[in-house]
Amino acid sequence: MNEKSLIKLIKSTLNSGYIGDDCAYLEDLGIVVTQDSLVEDVHFKRDLITPFQLGYKTVMVNISDICASGAEPKYMTISLSLPDTVDENFVKDFYEGAKKASKDVKIAGGDLTGSDKIYISAAAIGSDDGRKISSRANAKAGYKLIVSGEHGNSAYGLCLLLENNVTPTERINNKFISAHLMPAAQREFSKAIAENIKDDYAMMDTSDGLADALIQIAQASGVRLEIDTSKIPHDPVVDIDTVLYGGEDYQLVAAVPEYMLKNLNAYTIIGDVNTGNTGLVIDGEFYTDIDSKLYKHFKE
Amino acid sequence: MNEKSLIKLIKSTLNSGYIGDDCAYLEDLGIVVTQDSLVEDVHFKRDLITPFQLGYKTVMVNISDICASGAEPKYMTISLSLPDTVDENFVKDFYEGAKKASKDVKIAGGDLTGSDKIYISAAAIGSDDGRKISSRANAKAGYKLIVSGEHGNSAYGLCLLLENNVTPTERINNKFISAHLMPAAQREFSKAIAENIKDDYAMMDTSDGLADALIQIAQASGVRLEIDTSKIPHDPVVDIDTVLYGGEDYQLVAAVPEYMLKNLNAYTIIGDVNTGNTGLVIDGEFYTDIDSKLYKHFKE
Question: Which DSSP string corresponds to A34-55?
Fold first, then answer.
């Protein structure tokens, strides 16, 4: 069974209306909450990422989910499970990285246990104060599809890392490797939309790839999304398959009414939300599913 | 480095005032948050607990932390990392157990990833609405030390399980094994205190054992706790070392002013908070530390 089938099974077992978005919106408490795990040899390899970068990425991955909801990131908890082979320098460097990434988001607690491999699970909490919260089910015909930043850099950076001839300096200075190891959550893009929009809207991060996020929005909203790949911001060295299907960029993609674009500084329109069969039209070609093209982790 | 030294290191790295209690109190949002992980072969063995029981226990362990804070448990997220050898029946049974334990607490999301062993991390959120939140630093001389329920049953149950001659029926009907596999968070005890108390107070759950909770309260509050072991509720077959140092009962221990005991139905006074050297006096013997006597997990 794949992840999506299992999530369906969990939803039906719990009979929960919450599971589906990057964050759960707990309206009575005025907060959103998310939890994401990073597992050694599934999501990262110890020799390809420093403890500092791992702490940094753990925080950004979770803050990115909060940003996808439109909420203001406020607090995090981090649970670390560590093998005996990991010493206190790992823990110190990990939390230095976490602190660097979290800025004004407070790391308020967590848990520390033993394990065979490094398991990291973090939860993040955001506030809806003055913000309108997104849902991937809220895309409407007539809306514009917009994205933040460049796409495909992280997957391209992972390829460079796996090629194994990367010097330590390149790991720090190379824009693609940096995009993979130390991604940046799109807090300003999220804030500009969530503070200014009056209507329901859809927003997701591109943790599983841009095309996957678009398909999720199309399916949840029951709409037809049409995109023009020539409009997607990307570095010229990155091919369009990596731009569409490479994961872990932690950019944002949103479906919003056109009136609110005037409130945004940095965005790119990549397509439109239309009526018609539910799915994603990429340069005129219609897809209801892109599972076969999805970015794969090291092992799955 | 042991867990406590590492937590000190994390606190100093983050310069965080939050880390220390079972829950972090996020006053501006009116909530408390906690995160706890259960790792295969560290906290549980797959052949000694069913998936249903594991889901049940995951929820109770986290709700217990919320109860220790005095907050009302409201929401949870659960992150599951599973090996390929685990099928959809495991996931279904796990969430059936989680649902059974959570009752009105809503499971609002989480994450699902691959891994080598089963790794579970859950976060729980509670509301401070109408409740006074505890801190282990709030015990004051003159307060009474009170506990909920029986102590030592879970550790005794674990011994029975490890003896390996337990039939499936005994696993369900045996009170000690049930206390270990399907503990009950003390929601009523917590609520009765938190809704009725006016002063600051200390409360912890006994996840790491009763004596450990008392030492933590003594150290954080800078007080001398004195207990009489003959007063601690326990089954006659459980020896006093297991009562004091056995973990995972998920009972509550609190230091509260005497005036508020009239609002409680079910509690036992086991001692007093006094001035004097910081530490724990057990039947007249003074301890500043009980690390050598602590309950050990399967591997640590």
Answer: EEEEEEBTTTB-TTTS-HHHHH
